[in-house]
Amino acid sequence: QVQVTESGGGLVQPGGSLRLSCRVSGWTSVHYAVDAVGWFRQVPGKEREGVAAIGGDDSTFTIASVKGRFSVSRGNDRYTAHLDMNNLQPEDTAMYFCAFSSQVVNIMNIPPARLFEAWGQGTQVTVSS
Predict the structure, then answer these.
(1) Alpha-carbon 61 to chain mean position
(2) Beta-bridge partner residues of 96
(3) Strand 10-12 with 123-127, pairing
(4) What angle do CA 113, 118, 50 make, to 5 degrees?
(5) CA-CA distance, 99 to 13, in Å (whole number)?
(6) Could you give the 3-state DSSP secondary structure of residue 113?
(7) Would you call 98 helix, strand, or coil by DSSP?
(8) Do residues 21 and 80 touch, judged by C-beta distance below 8 A?
(9) Distance from C-alpha of 68 to C-alpha of 60, rounded to nearest angstrom
């Protein structure tokens, strides 16, 4: 069974930093390899928004509103990924989800959510003074 676990969310003051991490287990029982990992966020009442992604070739993309503040990277293996978030602002408050894909190699924008086969339950990030 494929399972995605996220960690690292919490409450932080404006200007602060957090590192989100996620790991997938059981992936190779279903898929050949991990290609892309995406980070998405959602605020109640709003659509889910893609924030950052890293492709199978380690290409990366971050959306304009977080560019220069957020960065996505892999961990020690392809089953782990991180989202480093700096200079957090109240508008970054959301539930953050990571997702794994076996279908996306090169990243030039945030791939559609339908291309990600496994999703985590989410970790809450709250930016408030």
Answers:
(1) 11
(2) 41, 123
(3) parallel
(4) 30
(5) 26
(6) helix
(7) strand
(8) yes
(9) 13
Q: How far apart (Å, rounded) are the C-alpha atoms in residues 76 and 90?
A: 31
Average pLDDT per 10 consecutive residues for the chain, totaling 129 residues: 94 98 87 87 96 93 97 93 98 97 88 93 97
The structure tokens listed for 4 are 């995605």
For 94, the enclosing helix (H) or strand (E) is strand 94-100
What torsion do the CA atoms of 111, 94, 72, 64 make, to the nearest 10 degrees? 70
Quickly tell me which residue has 């959602």 as its tokens: 42
Using the structure block, give the residue that is written with the tokens 């990571």.
98
Edge-first strand order for the sheet with 3-7 is 3-7, 18-25, 80-85, 70-74
> What is the structure's pLDDT at 100?
95
What pLDDT, on a 0 to 100 scale, did the predictor assign at position 35?
86
Over residues 41-77, the pLDDT tens digits come to 999 999 999 999 999 889 999 999 999 999 999 998 8
Question: How far is Cα 86 from Cα 71, in angstroms, rounded to an integer?
Answer: 9
